[in-house]
């Protein structure tokens, strides 16, 4: 089976601006608003969340939604030991940070260097 790699997929969201605004709460902008911290990565962002079961469900639902409209994204969910915080890393090929940055720009005070 021949699958596309993140390098072969265009760095674009398939939603038009109206759809993106309408669905922003269920996509990364809405999820990012729940983050305790946002860390800058070379090819994306890392979001830190509490280990609350409702937050975990929200993260999984967001990943599922984002996979449909931003197929170039790679997601890595890290559960820290001892019920510590969750980390969601959202990464992609060149151009990913430039696309995601404006979506989470209102959280700029949370962004820390990786």
Give a written overview of the molecule:
The structure is a single chain. This protein has a single domain (17-102), classed as Roll (Endonuclease I-creI). 32% of the residues lie in helices and 23% in strands. It contains four helices and five strands. It has helices at residues 17-22, 28-32, 53-69, 96-103; strands spanning 37-41, 44-49, 74-79, 86-91, 111-113. A five-stranded mixed sheet has the order 3-4-2-1-5, with helices on one face. Mean pLDDT is 83; it is low at 1-6.
Spatial extent as radius of gyration? 14 Å
Calculate the mean pLDDT score and round it.
83
* Poorly predicted ranges: 1-6
Distance between the termini: 35 Å
Number of helices: 4
- CATH topology group: Endonuclease I-creI
Order of helices and strands: HHEEHEEHE
Please identify, by name, the CATH architecture: Roll
Please give the largest β-sheet: 5 strands, mixed
Query: In what range is the share of β-strand residues?
Result: 15-25%
- Which structural class should the secondary elements be placed in? alpha+beta
């Amino acid at each position: 089976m021949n699958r596309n790699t993140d390098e072969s997929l265009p760095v674009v969201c398939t939603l038009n601006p109206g759809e993106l605004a309408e669905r922003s709460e269920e996509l990364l902008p809405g999820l990012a608003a729940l983050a305790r911290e946002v860390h800058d990565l070379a090819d994306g962002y890392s979001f830190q969340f509490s280990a609350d079961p409702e937050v975990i469900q929200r993260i999984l639902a967001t990943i599922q939604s984002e996979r449909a409209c931003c197929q170039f994204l790679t997601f890595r969910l890290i559960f820290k030991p001892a019920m510590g915080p969750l980390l969601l890393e959202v990464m992609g090929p060149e151009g990913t940070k430039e696309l995601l940055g404006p979506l989470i720009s209102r959280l700029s005070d949370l962004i820390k260097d990786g």
